[in-house]
Amino acid sequence: MAVAFHDINSAAGLKKLDQYLLTRSYITGYQASKDDVTVHAALSKPPSAEYVNASRWYNHIAALLRISGVSGEGCGVKIEGSAPITAEAVATPPACDSKASAAEDDDDDSDVDLFGEETEEEKKAAEERAAAVKASTKKKESGKSSVLLDIKPWDDETDMKKLEEAVRSIEVEGLHWGASKLVPVGYGIKKLTIMLTIVDDLVSVDSLIEERLTVEPINEYVQSCDIVAFNKICKIDALLSWSGLKIFLL
């Protein structure tokens, strides 16, 4: 069944595309196809960074188009409320070898040395292709994890409200604080059990504890931190993982 998108260049259309790509790498199927190229061509400009999933997908398809093209047929996609897309815009022939192209453009083929040293232009093009492959691979492999922390105060006189405020004041790219609960540990002392989501490539939980949670000024309230659970969030079980943690805290 064909997938349909409406007014894809509007804020509402981009938001729906971003939500659609939250659990998908491609528009349809498990590999890049002409459906991806169709949606890519329908966008008037790259999605802004606020549309995380759409931006990741757009950059990945752009890299594929620059390097090798896209040959998958896909299942069909409809773009409603946008200008018609021509067949030429969707066509993605394989990228040509730079030396072969240069030879075709040169009237005197005998002057082309296919075994000579690379020119500066060829070296630059090769570096750009390698950088594009590395960037697209990193985006594809980058994942998220859900973490459950136990944060313990110094004693029963520690203001737990201020402790939690201090913890949540930590702002790091790729870190999102979630639900929390105070849990009794004995002798009138309570610990803060709190969930957080991290982007694996951007945040290290060990560094977060050692360099943020247990140093000044937060160590005025925090005595120690323990990792209770660390779960990799997959596309399929992301919701199940978070649901399980929420049930644990109830």
TrEMBL record:
Residue ranges occupied by any Translation elongation factor EF1B beta/delta subunit guanine nucleotide exchange domain in the UniProt entry: 144-233
Region named Disordered: 96-137
Q: Which domain of life is it from?
A: Eukaryota
UniProt xrefs under InterPro entries: eEF-1beta-like_sf, EF1B_bsu/dsu, EF1B_bsu/dsu_GNE, Glutathione-S-Trfase_C_sf, Transl_elong_EF1B/ribsomal_bS6, Transl_elong_EF1B_B/D_CS
Keywords in alphabetical order? Elongation factor, Protein biosynthesis, Ribonucleoprotein, Ribosomal protein
Signal sequence extent: none
GO (cellular component) term, any one: cytosol
Looking up PROSITE patterns in the UniProt record yields: EF1BD_2 (PS00825)
Q: Biased composition, Acidic residues: where in the chain? A: 103-120
- One Pfam match, by short name? EF1_GNE
Query: Which regions are flagged for Basic and acidic residues bias?
Result: 121-131
UniProt GO MF annotations: guanyl-nucleotide exchange factor activity; translation elongation factor activity
Q: Which Gene3D superfamilies match?
A: 1.20.1050.130, 3.30.70.60
Read off the PANTHER family from this record: EF-HAND AND COILED-COIL DOMAIN-CONTAINING FAMILY MEMBER, ELONGATION FACTOR 1-BETA
User: Subunit structure, per the record?
Assistant: EF-1 is composed of 4 subunits: alpha, beta (1B-alpha=beta'), delta (1B-beta), and gamma (1B-gamma).
The UniProt family comment states: Belongs to the EF-1-beta/EF-1-delta family.
What the protein does? EF-1-beta and EF-1-delta stimulate the exchange of GDP bound to EF-1-alpha to GTP.
What name goes with this protein?
Answer: Putative translation elongation factor EF1B/ribosomal protein S6
Species this protein is from:
Rosa chinensis (China rose)
